[in-house]
Amino acid sequence: MRSGRGQSLNPRFLVQKAPELRGELSRADLGCAFAHRVETPPNAFSFGPRLQFGSSLVAGSSRKRSCKAERRKHFNLEHSFATEMGNGLSDQTSILSSLPSFQSFHVVILGLDCAGKTTVLYRLQFNEFVNTVPTKGFNTEKIKVTLGNSKTVTFHFWDVGGQEKLRPLWKSYTRCTDGIVFVVDSVDIERMEEAKTELHKITRISENQGVPVLIVANKQDLRNSLSLSEIEKLLAMGELSSSTPWHLQPTCAIIGDGLKEGLEKLHDMIIKRRKMLRQQKKKR
Ligand SMILES: Nc1nc2c(ncn2[C@@H]2O[C@H](COP(=O)(O)OP(=O)(O)OP(=O)(O)O)[C@@H](O)[C@H]2O)c(=O)[nH]1
Ligand SMILES: [Mg+2]
């Protein structure tokens, strides 16, 4: 079974958990709530789903001008290797890029197409559900997340398209990354083997040795979603290298359930690894 665009939802779950979705749900007759998609133009560097949020997120002309130089700098420094692939950069990204980088963690979001990566990204960014279109290149956002201990950290997320033809590019994005978020569609049983192959392939790359992986078991709101233990088994997570710290987190990206908890774990694993690397350096 393949879920995702136009899938059958568990409406009771959503109505209880996501009051802001009720209008959407009644319009869609509680059956295929997200069948009504707002398509965004497929041109590179389009503002993607952000356009749906109105003026507060579309920069005014003066702000645009003042950001121009910063945007160019940011772009040259960080995106040059992948500019041709981009389809979701924003003014917000460029402003946030000027923040001090010592608290910023570079995190790549990977997973098969339709797993919910972009939904995760924009749920974290706007704390709202955003209708998505398949990612042709990547989306990137710097997002401040307040963790349980009230500490605010900045994650620089790179959400890369999961279609088969785009997967060879994943390794370019994981170069020097602090962490990987690997999103899995919990009802896509048929493609669990494919997800396993991709997960193991990306973690086995020598540069990714020791990089913490947060495996997001997404779409837990759907009927027939696999349990965590089933997913753990199907993804053969026990066979991941012993040097790869991982955590499996159940989520529902459309309402945001489980995302903060997952990031908390990822943050802990990243900090632990950084400490370990520092100690190893000192010993040498
Ligand atoms: N029911 C349910 N649907 C979800 C959830 N997360 C995402 N979706 C839906 O799954 C579909 C695909 O989501 P995307 O975020 O575009 O998937 P993606 O992984 O970015 O896909 P690519 O960009 O093609 O790699 C959309 O219709 C989302 O609304 C979830 O937690 N529950
Ligand atoms: Mg996407």
Q: Can you summarize this structure?
A:
By secondary structure, this protein is of the alpha/beta class. It contains 9 helices and 6 strands, in the order H-H-H-H-E-H-E-E-H-E-H-E-H-E-H. The protein is globular and about 50 Å long.
Structure report:
The structure is a single chain. The protein has 284 residues and is an alpha/beta fold. The protein has two domains: 11-97, no CATH class; 104-283, P-loop containing nucleotide triphosphate hydrolases (Rossmann fold, 3-Layer(aba) Sandwich), CATH 3.40.50.300. 34% of the residues lie in helices and 15% in strands. The protein has nine helices and six strands, in the order H-H-H-H-E-H-E-E-H-E-H-E-H-E-H. Helix 8 links the parallel strand 5 and strand 6. Guanosine-5'-triphosphate binds at residues 4-5, 7, 9, 34, 111, 113-119, 132, 134-135, 161-163, 183, 218-219, 221-222, 252-254. Keywords: Cell membrane, Cytoplasm, GTP-binding, Lipoprotein, Magnesium, Membrane, Metal-binding, Myristate, Nucleotide-binding, Nucleus.
Helices and strands in order:
Elements: H1 11-17, H2 22-27, H3 61-79, H4 91-96, E1 104-110, H5 117-126, E2 138-146, E3 152-160, H6 170-173, E4 179-185, H7 192-204, E5 213-218, H8 228-234, E6 246-250, H9 259-283
Parallel strand pairs: 1-3, 1-4, 4-5, 5-6
Antiparallel strand pairs: 2-3
Pfam family, one: Arf
Keywords: Cell membrane, Cytoplasm, GTP-binding, Lipoprotein, Magnesium, Membrane, Metal-binding, Myristate, Nucleotide-binding, Nucleus
Organism: Rhinolophus ferrumequinum (Greater horseshoe bat)
